[in-house]
Structure prediction request, 257 residues.
Amino acid sequence: MTLSGKTAIITGSNSGIGLGIARELARAGADVVLNSFTDSEADHALAAGIAEEFGVKARYIRADMSKGAECRALIEQAGGCQILVNNAGIQHVAPIDEFPQDKWDAIIAINMNSAFHTMAAALPHMRRAGWGRIVNVASAHGLTASPYKSAYIAAKHGVVGMSKTVALETAEEAITCNAICPGYVLTPLVEAQIPDTMKEYDMSRDEVVRNVMLARQPSKEFATVEQIGGTAVFLCSDAAAQITGTTISVDGGWTAL
Ligand code: NAD
Prediction:
């Protein structure tokens, strides 16, 4: 299946899942726009590397997803898109009565409000193109809860609800809007936490992975960024044209429990 001729904007894509999704969309032929809030040589080099590896157009545009105007400017600076992936996200863990207001505001802004702004800005371009795919990266925490993650869980549930609403608003057009709900995904950040956790609990790597990190993931295996990217590519395919307003869990059975 080819996405050639389609432009995809992936927010928060200079690392982890966003970069994995950008790479899989590029592998499927899409031109890609990478994004984060930094503007380093390494950011631009990532885009150049993708262009060379997959023979597509790729560029990097700096925009801070905590700011509504910058979210909208990202879409306009890219000249619009047919594929929009809202992936930028951060986390903070604290009981609700100790949750810092600035962390709450940042999580709601980056993990949820940014999707409102980018979707609002991208939809007119998709309508003009007569085709569009919106893929929002939510989480198993968009469907279930855990203690101490009130802002993250509120934001991710919000993203799931917003995805359903946009799907209904675009239902009679060739535009779909869905949310991917990953369980624990092995990203460089997650990998980097393993040695400290091994020390903290005096456990082997395997014990940390099985009993701490993947305690709630029945498969006892991390999902990979390639699998999340492949799911995004599927949602952009013709086979998924009637899949809209729903969630796809990539969580090793977490939400089946
Ligand atoms: P990550 O930290 O590697 O990636 C987050 C990305 O968002 C980075 O590219 C970062 O630069 C970007 N970002 C952060 N703040 C930003 C801002 N203000 N403006 C623009 N970009 C910003 O983490 P990840 O694990 O790849 O997470 C990506 C998404 O997947 C997040 O929405 C996260 O909630 C979700 N998710 C991750 C997991 C997991 O296990 N890793 C599980 C479920 C959902």
Summary: Residues 186-221 form one domain. The pocket of nicotinamide-adenine-dinucleotide is lined by residues 12-18, 36-37, 64-66, 87-90, 110-111, 137, 139, 182, 184-185, 187, 189-190 (CB under 6 Å). Residues 101-129 form the longest helix (29 residues). Residues 65 and 110 are 5 Å apart (CA to CA).
